[in-house]
């Protein structure tokens, strides 16, 4: 059975009032979840002190924190200024992740653009190596840099492509982040959970997994990365809960459904139904 951490991407919707990160962490714990991803997707607007305070609270009450870096990152841009700005945003996110004791900073690496898949692969690798060097200089030693598996075929981040690059970089502070909905969309509306878990074992052994889950939308003849409630079953969550029950695995599942904590609670209940345990 898997040991699971489950929670929402961002401050829960049910929280009223000022909706601060601190209040969100407390709320997550109060409703019976044990993870929360702090969203910097529109920009890094949290001070180091606030990050430290969030981390202190999370450790005290047992909530695992992670961060999603800004969307405005493209390590394969033909503009040097865009790549430099992307690395700067990553470092700002990593500094706060280190301060709060987050497990991972998740980011969308790139679009293939003019470089194509092979050229983009090399460019992402080069930029990630630069970030690793900067992390060392800044004393960032706990939080990991997470390359997310992406939904669109125009984006760097196919499953095998991402796993291969992370394995090749071979640094404990660089990890792959599995987004189950993205894989479903990129595969044209199909997913084999068991095969993906086996592939994870092949590449990374018993390394903990950080993952995202949401259903996605079918629009204009294709599956697109538009988030839907999990009850739409695209992809279905229950088969994943069943497969995880067969695994000795530490896994975080961040709910990116529009219903956030409501769907996170549904996922928790399904995971527990099949014998998985909350950490």
Automatic annotation (TrEMBL):
Its needed co-factors are: Zn(2+)
What's a single GO MF annotation on this record?
Answer: phosphoric diester hydrolase activity
Instruction: Kindly give the InterPro entries that the UniProt entry links to this protein.
Output: AP_endonuc_2 (IPR001719), AP_endonuc_F2_Zn_BS (IPR018246), Xyl_isomerase-like_sf (IPR036237), Xyl_isomerase-like_TIM-brl (IPR013022)
List where this protein forms a coiled coil.
none
Record's keyword terms, sorted: DNA damage, DNA repair, Hydrolase, Isomerase, Metal-binding, Zinc
Q: Where is the Xylose isomerase-like TIM barrel domain?
A: 26-270
GO terms classed as biological process: base-excision repair
- Pfam families the record matches: AP_endonuc_2 (PF01261)
Q: Which family does it belong to?
A: Belongs to the AP endonuclease 2 family.
What PANTHER family does the entry give?
A: APURINIC-APYRIMIDINIC ENDONUCLEASE, ENDONUCLEASE IV ENDODEOXYRIBONUCLEASE IV
Protein name per UniProt: Xylose isomerase domain protein TIM barrel
Q: Which organism is it from?
A: Caldivirga maquilingensis (strain ATCC 700844 / DSM 13496 / JCM 10307 / IC-167)
């Amino acid at each position: 059975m898997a040991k699971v951490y489950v929670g929402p991407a961002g401050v829960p919707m049910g929280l009223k009032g000022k909706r601060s990160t601190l209040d969100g962490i407390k709320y997550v714990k109060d409703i019976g979840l044990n993870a929360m991803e702090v969203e910097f997707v529109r920009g890094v607007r949290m001070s180091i002190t606030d990050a430290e305070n969030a981390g202190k609270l999370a450790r005290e009450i047992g909530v695992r924190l992670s961060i999603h870096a800004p969307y405005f990152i493209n390590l394969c841009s033909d503009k040097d200024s865009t790549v430099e700005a992307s690395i700067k945003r990553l470092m700002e996110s990593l500094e706060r992740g280190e301060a709060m004791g987050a497990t991972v900073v998740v980011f969308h690496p790139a679009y293939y653009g003019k470089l194509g898949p092979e050229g983009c692969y090399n460019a992402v690798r080069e930029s990630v190596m630069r970030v690793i060097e900067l992390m060392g200089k800044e004393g960032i030693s706990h939080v990991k840099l997470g390359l997310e598996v992406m939904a669109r075929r125009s984006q760097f981040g196919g499953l095998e492509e991402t796993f291969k690059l992370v394995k090749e970089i071979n640094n404990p502070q660089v990890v792959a982040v599995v987004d189950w909905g993205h894989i479903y969309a990129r595969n044209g509306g199909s997913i084999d959970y068991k095969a993906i878990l086996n592939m994870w074992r092949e590449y990374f052994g018993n390394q903990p997994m950080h993952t995202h889950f949401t259903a996605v939308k079918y629009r204009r003849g294709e599956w697109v990365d538009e988030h839907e409630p999990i009850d739409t079953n695209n992809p279905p969550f229950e088969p994943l809960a069943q497969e995880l029950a067969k695994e000795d695995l530490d896994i975080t599942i961040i709910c990116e459904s529009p219903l956030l904590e409501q769907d996170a609670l549904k996922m928790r209940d399904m995971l527990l139904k099949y014998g998985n345990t909350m950490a």
